[in-house]
Amino acid sequence: MATAAAWSSGLAGGMVLQSASNGECRVKYIIVRTPNGEAPVVFPRAFLHRYVASLFAPMEVTAAGFVTMAEGRLRCYGKSAGLRLPSRPEFDSALVNAGLDGARDFPWTEPPAEPPAEP
């Protein structure tokens, strides 16, 4: 089974998860309650937790925080001040890692420089 380490230098959903020189991943996350259970949404630090959560309304956001790479796995920590929600480190980390592991068979590639011409 693939681990988050396998994704640390590749593209996942169009976002590079490569660690910064200080070992810190440059991503945030929220956990959204869907009709099928809770699902992680990982996004760049430049976006506000509150903004990303609004994109999933009316679904409830149950946890939020930051992601770092530790021992070859992604680890969730911290809280979202804007949403006033803490992370649930163990549970959220399991969801984020499972989400990436579940995507291991997707053929991730660089996005094209220009969109293909319409026929």
Features:
disordered N terminus, two-stranded antiparallel ribbon, globular, 33% strand, four-stranded antiparallel β-sheet, alpha+beta
The major pleated sheet works out as:
4 strands, antiparallel
> What coarse outline follows from CA principal-axis ratios?
globular
What do the pLDDT scores average to?
A: 77
Radius of gyration: 15 Å
Number of helices: 3
Q: Structural class of the helices, strands and pairings?
A: alpha+beta
The level of helicity is 10-25%
Helix-strand pattern: HEEEEHEEEEH
Low-confidence stretches: 1-16
Strand content: 25-35%
Through-space gap between termini: 40 Å
The counted number of beta strands is: 8
Spatial order of the strands forming the largest sheet: 4-3-5-6
Question: What is this structure, in a nutshell?
Answer:
The chain is an alpha+beta fold and 119 residues long. It has a domain at 22-101. The chain contains 3 helices and 8 strands; from the N terminus they run αββββαββββα.
